[in-house]
Amino acid sequence: MDVVNKKWTLEYFAQQRNEVLGMWNTGKDVNLEDSIEFHKKLLAKQNAAIKVLAAQKKRETLLCPSTGTDTLEGHKKLLQYMEKEANADLLTTYIDSLTRNCRFESAEEAVKKSLESSKAVLNGFPSVIHGIKGNREIVESVALPVILFGPSPDARLTHEIGLGGGHTGYSGGPLISFWNYTKNIPIDKIIHNFQYINRLMGYYEENGIPILYCVSGAMPSISPPSLMIAPEIIEVLIAAEQGVKHIQLNGWLQGNIAQDVANILTLKKLADKYLHKFGYDDVTTTTYSVCPTGRFPTDHSSVYALIAYFAFIGSLANVQVLGSRTIDEAHHIPTQEGTAKSFKCAGMINRMVSPQQLDFIDSKKIQEEAYFIEKEVIAILDKLIEIGEDDIISGTKRGIEAGIIDQPYATTQFVKGKVLGVKDHEGAARFFDKGDLPFCDEILNFHKSKISEREKILNKKIGYETIIADMTAISNGSLLPLFRNLT
Hints:
Helix content: 40-55%
Structural class: alpha/beta
Mean pLDDT: 94
CATH architecture of the largest domain: Alpha-Beta Barrel
Low-confidence stretches: none
Largest sheet: 8 strands, parallel
Number of helices: 18
Order of helices and strands: HHHEHEHHHEHEHHEHEHEHEHHHEEHH
């Protein structure tokens, strides 16, 4: 498949839509002109992009829980509960895994079982099964904007129906779907599917309906921030070419305050830089942060501390939208009660921190982290642009094959997987193995020196047992493993 970063013509888009809308019977009810008219009624109060831009202007941070269940009545009640009890500012429809993998027949059967048993069967909302009418029923049942959540290798029909049903945003992207949610689907195919989604978003934008697109890049696994920022900016450039105008940048947090804040600030700085480099000067960017992935503690009091801690970091960095994991994470699928309690905790921290205009961003540690993050991301992206002959998609395809852009512990088989991260003595993520990333000696020496400082404290060389211990440290109650576990 010859996929390049060039805006689709309306003729090509229309050809693709005939195929996509025929993927399931609810596709026949999609009508873009009718959908745009429906969205115009939502612009005043229920448009996510407009609300987030207003928050950016006011230096406010909005709360956005991630929620979804399988039946119409169940999902309506869930969103209404989040609106009332969690004090949320944005609501989400998290798409179930069957729908995200286009297993629509299985998803329909699961909904039937859920209705018969009055118990949730799916781990999210099957928007395609419920169609345009059902999605609009969901959106009209609440007063807040609702956005779609869920990385997927093929969410084209999900977006036709989800956006047509009144959702005004989406969190996901081609690179995170490739790295973390597929095994054997080529990057070309996934990017092509997202070009469709982005062109659909662009069509809404061209007709006066702002759509908020939250890029995600890659999930962290003790990952130096450049491993997450570089793929996010690739997603940004792919989306901008297809006409997306409102992009939200996902700042994945991992626990070291200086590195996490530098991550968020550098992500926005470089996203804006590369948008300008390629002439996308009418695209606005906002920021989002969320707790790290990985295992969470089982003890609720410990989880509350983590939720508060990561809400504190996001608030310090003045993100426009704050996400969070929940107190239920280590036990089962999050409940509405658990989610509401988690966001009340995050909201309290945010309200304490946000009014304080702290100037700590100029601190030496944050500036040092930002300097090296920026240097690493530019090294990766500029090399991709070079080997792609100024086409970021061509460069990404070739770069993945060469390991110029890479991820640890990726689920896809189409990746080198040579890079590995480890924590330094302050819990910041460093390169234990940089693989084939195109880094200069200054970058490599910086990471080596930080790892060396931890080795001196431990009085031993860092190896794979340390990496494994680092991955479970937070779930065991600390940013770094207890020294006794490593001696």
